[in-house]
Design brief:
alpha+beta; Arc Repressor Mutant, subunit A; three-stranded antiparallel sheet; two-stranded antiparallel ribbon; 9 helices; elongated
Length: about 180
């Protein structure tokens, strides 16, 4: 298969996927070595530098994304007057989960200082948060963010989240404060 034929085949697949696709999956489907798939993907990334979209690697796979500078046009088209944004409470709750996961609902409530039950249901329903086990001491259900959360933010891993330290007054005492709130 020629380079251009391989690139076109990859583009055709990327146009129909719902979730990021890995190099290995592309290699298996196209019956090509993984190295050639990686090379083709890297060539394609450069190809789209002057377009309204880009090819990005996110959560271990590849997918087309609209460029950030066109987000207002895309948002207007997608929403078309509908309100599907997360509320401030949901964003705050999601941030607490993202940075402190796995975490129980009670702990999130203690950090935020309000009951987060309804907000948690919204985040679970939207696929941004999921159950991730049980806290041994209390039996409380623990929550974590999903790969869909990473995908929506355009991140490969949680380690790509920005550091919180510059925005918090005293990080060293945070655990002490949290423990005193849940006692």
């Amino acid at each position: 298969m020629s380079n251009s034929e391989l690139e076109r085949s990859i583009e055709a697949i990327l146009m129909v996927i719902d979730e990021p696709v890995t190099e290995l999956t592309l290699a298996q489907v196209l019956e090509q070595p993984v190295g050639e798939i990686v090379d083709a993907l890297e060539r394609l990334v450069g190809t789209y530098s002057e377009h309204g979209f880009e090819l990005r690697q996110v959560t271990g796979g590849w997918r087309f994304y609209s460029r950030g500078e066109y987000s207002s046009a895309v948002e207007k088209f997608v929403l078309d007057g509908q309100q599907s944004r997360l509320t401030q409470a949901a964003l705050e709750t999601l941030a607490v989960i993202a940075y402190r996961q796995p975490i129980s609902r009670a702990r999130v409530s203690a950090i935020r200082g309000v009951n987060v039950e309804a907000v948690m249901k919204t985040l679970v329903t939207r696929g941004l948060v999921e159950e991730s086990g049980v806290e041994h001491e209390t039996g409380a259900i623990l929550y974590r963010t999903t790969t869909y959360f990473l995908e929506r933010l355009g991140l490969n891993a949680l380690s790509d989240l920005p550091a919180l330290a510059p925005y918090l007054p005293d990080l060293e005492r945070l655990d002490e404060i949290l423990d005193s709130l849940t006692d």
